[in-house]
Fold these 2 entries.
Entry 1:
Amino acid sequence: MGANYSATLHEAHNMPTTPQIKRSQVNAFHSSTKWKLHFDSLKDTNKLVVIDFTATWCGPCKYMEPVINDFAAKYTDVEFVKIDVDELMDVAQEYGVQAMPLFVLIRKGKVVDKIVGADKDGLQKKIVKHRASLY
């Protein structure tokens, strides 16, 4: 019985890692310098970037977190970035963040669209619209 129990624990432990390998991730930045370097590296690509401006105390932001994770898994050709406005105030100020969550869609270093609030369907429509112009 002990061997079966150990095997079951081992299998259960390994199961969650399999989907994560296939999933795109949401990149969180905690340094303005690292964000700037990453942003500069994306300027010359045609990749759509979705920046999620959030805060730990923001209820609607917490509601949108699993939604963004799902979108990152679904739209693996899109770069998803999470920036906490309290950590990177200079970046939030640069993008004129006044309400959260704020989603800023960027291509080639230029803002192509924005959406304010926990509008899951609206955000998905804008992602689909702007990633379609990739192809």
Note: The mean pLDDT is 84.
Entry 2:
Amino acid sequence: MDIKEQATANLKQYDTGDKFSYISVIPKASVLIPLFVRNGQLYTLMTLRSKELKRNAGEVCFPGGKRDPMDKDDVDTALREAEEEIGLPPDDVEVVCRLFPLVTKSGLLVTPVVGFIEETFHPSPNPAEVSAVFAVPLDFFMREKDHDAIHFAAMQGLVHFFHYVDPESGSQYAIWGLTAMLAIMVAAFALRTNPEYDVGFDTEDPFSFFQQTLNRRLSKL
């Protein structure tokens, strides 16, 4: 079994499917976490949001956005947004799974959709939304080096921070908050590796942690 097949099998164990489609009390959004294999190593694509945007300007994130009335489901939203933001055709994404949804500080229910793309994909970022697209080795998010975390009572848990320097461009990126947590989840699940630092949840049984977190956030609405 090659690295892609192994990662796919690992990730499918955490697939939530449409288990949370019943939630309708808060607005929904989806992000696509694109994975690919380069030189025998798993990578993910990330974006830097345009500084002209009204929300989260200049922050690192995965391609994604709010649910459109025409979207059939969370996967449809993630694929549509990825095409709009970085020019990734939906048919070029091999969807693997949907992971546990998280609630943002602004009250959006965000579902992470994980899929494989070809290494040869060349992003065409929409300048109105995206100012840069870059690749990060997935195991970067498992290492303590370049990682920090702060406990915020308001967030009811750890907020993770990563400092990443893109070797191709030399650009420096701060990856934190929800995006960092999503990256940690995907890396830990795909690689079946425990992080070198305290991640704030049990990687062997993540469902109970995220279910409790979701229930607490929903109870306050």
Note: The helical segments are 3-12, 74-86, 177-191, 206-219.
